[in-house]
Specification:
The complex is a heterodimer of chains A (about 100) and B (about 170). Chain A is built from 3 helices and no strands. Chain A is mainly α. Chain A has one domain: Orthogonal Bundle (Helix Hairpins). In chain A, about 50% of the residues are buried. Chain B is an all-alpha fold and about 170 residues long. Chain B has a single domain, classed as Up-down Bundle (Four Helix Bundle (Hemerythrin (Met), subunit A)). Chain B is about 75% helix and about 0% strand. Chain B contains 7 helices and no strands. In chain B, helix 1 runs antiparallel to helix 2 and helix 2 runs antiparallel to helix 3. Chain B is globular. Classes of the chains: A mainly alpha (about 100), B mainly alpha (about 170).
């Protein structure tokens, strides 16, 4: 009995969940962004495992595209965070209260 | 009973991946949190390289993710130069409770779904390299590939427009 798809699924879901948990409980915008990257990484693990299991390359191609989109998203996100920090004087999400009821 | 050595390798790296992922969430200081994510990405690359036989993706993971994106993150964190009072945050217990319970429900659902996936992954280092990937990218996924280049160009423009003080 070797390492199968189920073990990789468990690993990937746990990494994804830790990212989601961090997104829910942290208040620092930068750390929330890091947790977003963690979630993307968890999904990548699952894509790679499925590609390996099916013996096809397509999962790896999708992982490449996910990485490219993550790079674009990181650039935009960091620009938004820099502007946020400059306008609000901090990185806590509590400071984004302009539209708060 | 003979223990398969690949199982031990997988277990070791999976534990390291989970440990560094916990570090990203639990460490208070943003720089150490980012370094923990860096460790996570590198160990995942090792997992790809050793167990899944994907040397090209492993290399790209280290170069693009760990090299470019994480350096970018660290650069921004250090640019902000947060003092001790600014990054400290209170961990509110009911938020923690709410997050953990939501995560547990999601994990339960996924594990019920994934319980029937019994596919076997042959471990080892004979998989797909850059040749197979590029063949597929430049034939079937050529439109998506070109669109990704447009996306990155637009993202660069948008980042400049957002971060500029006065347009």
């Amino acid at each position: 009995m070797g390492v199968g798809l189920f073990q990789y699924t468990v690993l990937s879901v746990l990494v994804f969940l830790l990212g989601a948990l961090g997104l829910m409980i942290r208040k620092n915008v930068i750390v929330m962004f890091l947790c977003l990257e963690l979630m993307l990484n968890g999904v990548n693990i699952l894509f790679m495992a499925l590609a390996r299991c099916r013996g096809s390359v397509e999962g790896q191609v999708i992982v490449l595209f996910v990485m490219a989109v993550a790079a674009a998203e990181a650039a935009i996100g960091m620009a938004i965070i820099t502007t946020f920090y400059r306008n609000r004087g901090g990185v806590g999400v509590d400071r984004a209260d302009l539209m708060k009821w | 009973m003979v223990i398969n050595p690949w199982n031990l390798v997988f277990l070791f790296f999976a534990l390291l991946v989970l440990l560094s992922a916990v570090g990203v969430v639990a460490i208070r200081h943003p720089v150490y949190s980012a370094l923990s994510l860096l460790a996570n990405l590198c160990i995942t690359a090792v997992l790809y390289l050793v167990l899944m036989g994907a040397p090209f993706i492993a290399m790209i993971q280290v170069i693009v993710y760990a090299g470019a994106i994480m350096v970018f993150f660290l650069f921004v964190i250090m640019l902000m130069n947060l003092r001790k009072g600014e990054y400290e945050e209170r961990m509110v217990p009911w938020r923690l409770l709410l997050g953990v319970s939501a995560a547990a429900v999601f994990a339960f659902q996924v594990f019920i779904l994934a319980g029937e996936w019994r596919g076997f992954l042959p471990p080892g280092a004979h998989g797909f390299g850059a040749k197979d990937l590029s063949h597929l990218i430049f034939t079937r996924y050529i439109l998506a590939f070109e669109l990704v280049s447009v996306l990155i160009f637009v993202a660069a423009l948008g980042a400049v427009a957002l971060a500029k003080k006065k347009l």
